[in-house]
Amino acid sequence: MLRGLGWEILRIWSPDWWHDKAGAAERFRKTDLSEFRADPEAFYEFSYRSTIDAMVTRIVETEAPVRDDVVAQRIARAHGWLRTGSRIRDKIERHLRPFDFTHDSAGRFLWPKGGIVKTVNYRPPATEDHRRPVADIALQELVGLVQAHPQAHEEPDPALVLARLMGLERLAASSRARIDEAIAMFTQADGSDDA
After folding, report:
1. pLDDT tens digits for 105-119?
2. Are the CB atoms for 138 and 65 separated by under 8 Å?
3. Per-residue pLDDT tens digits for 163-191
4. For the whole model, what pTM was predicted?
5. What is the DSSP letter of 133?
6. Contact 43, 89 (CB under 8 A)
7. Which residues touch 148 (CB under 8 Å, ≥6 apart)?
8. pLDDT tens-digit series, residues 77-94
9. Tally of CA atoms within 13 A in the half-sphere of 195 that contains its CB
């Protein structure tokens, strides 16, 4: 009933909240843009730039590293649009200049200015609805997952073990390749030969 009214139900195991509120809250790191007055009619107006700037900044500060097209999708949805066409993406692209970028096999990821690091703690999904495709997760975050579970290297199929830890039921070839890339980056940085 509450979901039908627009509520989003988040489940936290009470001992997690009691012992580590910040860590438990981190699992829900998805930007809430409801405080912004999204106005689809004004979206392309010059006077609306500050609103889009603020939305982009909030998304990057909350979810970084975040893929540029995910930012565009979040802003489009906040305006009630189900599709993120080229005109919307082009408009949002003009608001991405203040941020740092990394490029990898999945695309371009935005970071706060001066915020690029080699490893980011993996953010597990709070619920199945919050699960992100592997392509939406920066390699630095996947390396963080590998780093948090070094024992996965001892398994016959480390990529599959890590995929299961991410909540993936099936491991597509493209997702496997991306996880393998993160394993290789971790192994290279760690200096170990066994992968």
Report:
1. 999 999 999 999 999
2. yes
3. 999 999 899 999 999 999 999 999 988 76
4. 0.80
5. P
6. no
7. 121, 122
8. 999 999 999 999 999 999
9. 16
